[in-house]
Amino acid sequence: MSASAKNEDFLFPLCFVIYEVASYMANDAYVPGLIDLSKSLNISPSGAYLTLTVFFLGNLLFQLIIGPCAERFGRRKVLLVGACVFIGSSLICAFTTNFYIFLLARFIQGSCLPSLTITGYATIHSMFDRVHAVKTLAWMSCITILAPSVGPLFGAIILLFAHWQWIFIILAIWVLIILIPLYRCMPETIGNQREDFSIASLVNHYSCLLFDWVFMKPVISLGLLFAAMTAWMVAGNFIIVIDFHQTPMCFGIVQFIIFMGFFVGTQLASSWIEHFSLRTINSIIIMLVALSSSFSLVSALLFDKSLVCLIIPLLLLTIAAGIALPLYNRLIVESSPEPMGFKISLFTFFTVAGCLLGSVLINIFYSNLTHFYIIFSLLGVLFVTINGFSYQKSSLESREIDG
């Protein structure tokens, strides 16, 4: 491969992940400002939670249509339209004083994310083989994790000097700046053969994927991991500030420590993919999640006022998620012959559904730290149950994914 080709292969993932961080910051960076948002728009804490939930809902509802649209009309066009709408909705969030308009703008903002994630990840999987793809996804995840880890700290720093509205203004400018190089370096994939966009075709492709357990198990598993992490991201600020009587800046620091575990996990995945079997790596992921759930239950019963005992199970789970994300991401692509856009759409749909599940569980059941521990533990137990008791050697390895 020539130096020019290598640079092109690196440039697109880099521009893509910078945009991806900005889109995720739309949730993570303004979490420290939820209390100020509540006062500014004269809403209750449950109303503030709702601004997070509708973001995930908007993201979820458009997942299954964006993939087929990208296969039909081209990934670059879909990316460009989504980015422009994201910028506009971010500015509305910044300048409106009406809570219901704010909610609508948040919903639209969330609905733009599939145009980024589906087109971007589909393009990366089309560009690289398995080992190169896992390594690329691993270093990308290291940067992406800046959103939940550095995002609250970034938002808290902005709040020291400006109102919460400036978080959305900065994000709009960020996306506008990165959009130009991203659009120019993104390879177009549309050719003479375009996917059938009929309802019958969509139903047929998605049905084949939904009833394929080899495809669905890593999809569901990753969704559960994201549900647990989202439960923390939604409730974390209130847990640190109210239950532990700390500052939003402290929450930002705790968040950074926890999500450094994700960074460690991605580095382990990048290293292990060339040296260990997928079954071995998956067993380590299951063990980490099991330890996380067990420690969380013990903390709920015995150490509910210890900040260290809160951090430990969260750190174990983020390490497991960091290992699982690039690995499961590639397995999902290799496990079925269905078109790339449909596979990525369903994968991101369940990932976002997991995020929505975590947010909804906190909205409905969370009122104190013990409730959070229980929600977090149950999600981990469900993950372990699906993976620990349903793994069959014939599943992944029969399709030669274990290579």
From TrEMBL:
**PROSITE patterns given in the database record:** MFS, SUGAR_TRANSPORT_1
Q: How does it sit in the membrane?
A: Multi-pass membrane protein
| Domain Major facilitator superfamily (MFS) profile residues, every copy | 1-395
Q: What InterPro entries does the record tag this protein with?
A: MFS, MFS_dom, MFS_Efflux_Transporters, MFS_trans_sf, Sugar_transporter_CS
Give TM regions: 9-26, 46-66, 78-101, 107-124, 136-160, 166-185, 222-242, 249-269, 281-303, 310-328, 340-365, 372-391
Among the GO molecular function terms of this UniProt record, one is: transmembrane transporter activity
What keywords tag this UniProt record?
Answer: Cell membrane, Membrane, Transmembrane, Transmembrane helix
Question: GO cellular component terms?
Answer: plasma membrane
* Keyword flag Transmembrane helix: yes
Q: Where in the cell is it found?
A: Cell membrane
Can you name this protein?
Multidrug efflux system protein
| Taxonomic placement | Bacteria, Pseudomonadati, Pseudomonadota, Gammaproteobacteria, Legionellales
